[in-house]
Amino acid sequence: MKTPTLISSLLVLSAVNLTLMVPGGFIESRDFSHISPMILGAFNILLTALGMISFFLAYFVFRKQRWAFMASLLCSIGYFIVYVIDLAEIFPKSPSPMPTSLLSLEIFGTILSIPLSLYAFKAFDKEKTEGPSSPVGNTIYWIIAAAMIIGLGIIIFATKSAMTANT
């Protein structure tokens, strides 16, 4: 498998893995009602942006855009930090125990971030020129607008779900 295809695959896999852990979803059921809504909202914005940017980056990495390799490296570091601080129980703290399925997905996400960062760095270092560029039509603006609306919905849902104490 060629490096850009591998990086794109790791980005999509990382984003899907993160998506499975949205508070209020099937996996994340911990109670974060003691955390300020502003802090929780900001954290959910970060997580949503990380996942959505990864989906978009997968395309640009596949097109061999050099900047996308560096952005992929930054995303991989973001994934690593997010998972490690949760696994180390630094943030977000919860009185509820971490479900086993969530623990498994977070360990998987941490492991995924390592080859993602290594391959992204290698590709950035190797690719000295930009890949083929193509004109961007108006469709991309509609896709970005739709992604922003979906992202806002995810942030609101995740924040409200995390603020609700599970009894």
UniProtKB/TrEMBL annotation:
Per UniProt, what is one Pfam family of this protein? Answer: DUF8051
Which keywords has UniProt assigned to this entry?
Membrane, Transmembrane, Transmembrane helix
This protein's source sits in the domain of life called Bacteria
Report domain DUF8051 positions: 6-130
Q: Where are the transmembrane segments?
A: 6-27, 39-61, 67-88, 100-120, 140-159
- What's the source species for this entry? Jiulongibacter sediminis
Q: Is the Transmembrane helix keyword given for this protein?
A: yes
The protein's name: DUF8051 domain-containing protein
